[in-house]
Structure formats: C-alpha cells, structure tokens
User: What shape does this take?
Amino acid sequence: MAFNLKKVLKAWLLSSSQPLSVKDIQGAFTRFHEQAAALPFEAEDPAAAVPLTPEVRAPPTGGEPASGTESATAAAAPAPSVAPADEVTEVALEPLPKDPELYADVPSLVTVTQIREAMDAISADLRLSDDGLLLIEGNTGYRLVTHPRFGRWIRILRQEPPPVKLSQSAIETLAVIAYRQPVTRGEIETIRGVSAEAGVNKLLERELVYIVGRADAPGRPIQYGTTDQFLEFVGIKSLDELPASDVLSSRQIDEWLKTSSNTHTPTDTDMGLADEQLPLETPAVTPASEAADATPESTANVPVAATEVSESPVAPPAAPPENEASPI
Assistant: This one.
C-alpha cells in the first residue's frame, strides 16, 4: 500500500489549532528523514532492543553449586565497571510501527501541487460528511474551522457576545484603506468627503487596521494599513485577491489628491470654456446737449455744500397797526 499523504495531513490539522502552511509540511517531511538517518537502528519489537549497559551475570541461586575452578575464576576476574548514572548516554530507539500506509515509502520531498490536491480532497470529504467542520486556506496556511451555522453554540460555550456588524461608513473607510494603503486620515476624508475619525477608531478597535507609520509630509500624519485579521474577515489570502477597482486603485487619484491640496481659482479652461480674452467695457460718456437739457427738478434736491454761506435779504421794518395813533 502506498503512502497516504491525506491521512497524515488530516492528523496534523486535527492535532493543532495553528494554521498549517506548505512550508511547515515540507519541513516536517525533511525532519522525518533526518531522524530516520540519525537513529542507529529501528526494531519492530521493543523487547529486541539491545540494553544500554553491559549485562552482569548474577551468581546462581539454586541447583548445583559452582565448581571450585569456576568460582576461583569468577573471584579472580575483575568486576565490570558500571558508569555513573550521569554519564550513561541514552539513545532514543523509536520502533517503526507496522503501518506501511503511514511510514513506508515516505517521500523525501512533497511538492506544493501534491499538498494542495490532498487538502482539496480533505475539504471535499468534510463538506460531504457534514460534520460541522470546514477546511479553509488563509494567508498563513490551512486550518480547520467550525461551520458558520454552529456559531451560536460556539459563542454560548465561550460566553462571547454576538458579533457586531460594521456600519456603512466604516465599510467605506475600510475599503479606502484596503485599496490605498498606506493612507492617511486626511486622504481618506478627501476621497470620501466626510470626517473619517470615528470610522478609523472603530476599525482600530476591531483590529482590522493598524498604524503603519508616518507619511513624509508636513506634520508627519499617521498612515494606516490592513491587518491579517482583515484578510480572514474578507476571506482572501492576500491583498492581490481583492476585486479590481477602477475607482479606488486607479493612479489618477494620486494626481487628484495632489491637486486637491493646492486649490486655485478655476479658469475658463478648467470649466470647459474657450480661453478667449474679452475686451474691457468702457463707461458711457454723456453728451453736452443732454446735460444742457436737464430740467431744474433734477437739481432742485442737490444739497448746498457746508462751506457755502447763503446771503439772506434784510427784511423791511414792520408797518404799525392801523388802530394805534401815530405820534405828532
């Protein structure tokens, strides 16, 4: 029977809660052959292994006593020296199980194609059995997870609160960071047109984004990027698997962000009009004949300047009343 790679991989997946990468699998096969070459021998029966210390014959306890010659020889022979306990070198002898499906004809090199085919077969078997387990491939390797329909029971066991959905504003902010990272909060606000402080803080709290560093710009603003948990949240292995976006990933936005920071007065060319130099309008001149025909009513309400002093005529003396006698 040939070596069964699928069974070995399934046992590794069930034995560890950590993701199993292709590099880890290939390294395990390399260590298997290194250990097999380092062992002095492998015996199927542990009782057949040679003892580590020399055997010392004990004197007979019954039957015929030893002859005088044998007893004299035994007395004259020096006692075998037994090494101290701390100087005894122990050699691990792991017997080879009688299971050719797992330990016979083990390949020294397992290719990536063989690993992927075996993992796909395991995933198909799990889906067919419908036992509540799924095999997923993340950015760090393969891992066994529970089916989403068992999520409520898992949260009850772990005493975890139900998951909280992201708001539309947080999803838009996350999309801008995913496609434009590393990106500053000012660039996010320029693209979305609204404040992004609340959305960024929520994403940092959910560990979907993290602080990458600081931009080489005035004020050294903080730059943000996505985490590995974001990849698991979306269900992809790398950022290259993100759907193509002509809106967020286009290089034209870079030029637009640069020009948006340096605002200027729009010209006719910016507005799509012809760049023509229009003549300046000259003020109209009133003819002299029209000025002469001006009516007095137009000048009646003109105030007199404060510097001009009007000369009022002297009033005549008042006449005496008729009933009064005039002097003689």
